[in-house]
Amino acid sequence: MRNDALPPLKRLRAYIDASIAAIRSHEVKNGCLVGNFAAEASDHSEIIRRRVSEIYVELREATAYCLKAAVKAGELPKNLKINDVADFIVTGLQGAWLVSKVERDLAFAENFKKTLFSTVLA
């Protein structure tokens, strides 16, 4: 999402599409590795919990970077609450991937992507 050679919203869409493709390639059984660690290991190891937290911070920062670039490029409104939307995107994707994994159906992740681009970022 920090690839400045691509338009910002195209970067965000590509990130989501690549994540969906990776989950699809594992028959929707693995979900997101970070989310899996968050759900399974963070209660058992403070070291793992801290590292997963750091990864979520990195994801939110990369998403915010991309959203800031989209505002600067005129793809999104100047009054966008960038950090709030970045938090929403990261946590929403994690939830969509988790439900997709449980249901073995990427429709939940696809619906999140569709709603994100047609409503939240429209």
Describe this structure in words.
By secondary structure, the chain is an all-alpha fold. Helix content is 73%, strand content 0%. The chain has helices at 8-25, 33-40, 46-72, 82-103, 107-120. It is globular and about 45 Å long. The model has no long low-confidence stretch (mean pLDDT 90).
Brief overview:
It is built from five helices and no strands.
Record field, number of beta strands: 0
Portion in beta strands: under 5%
Largest sheet: none
Helix content: over 70%
Choose one word for the global shape: globular
Uncertain parts: none
State the end-to-end distance: 19 Å
Overall average residue pLDDT: 90
What pattern of helices and strands is seen along the backbone? Answer: HHHHH
Number of helices: 5
Secondary-structure map:
Layout: H1 8-25, H2 33-40, H3 46-72, H4 82-103, H5 107-120
Helix pairs in contact: 1-3, 2-3, 3-4, 4-5
Question: What key attributes describe this structure?
Answer:
122 residues, 5 helices, 0% strand, 73% helix, mainly alpha
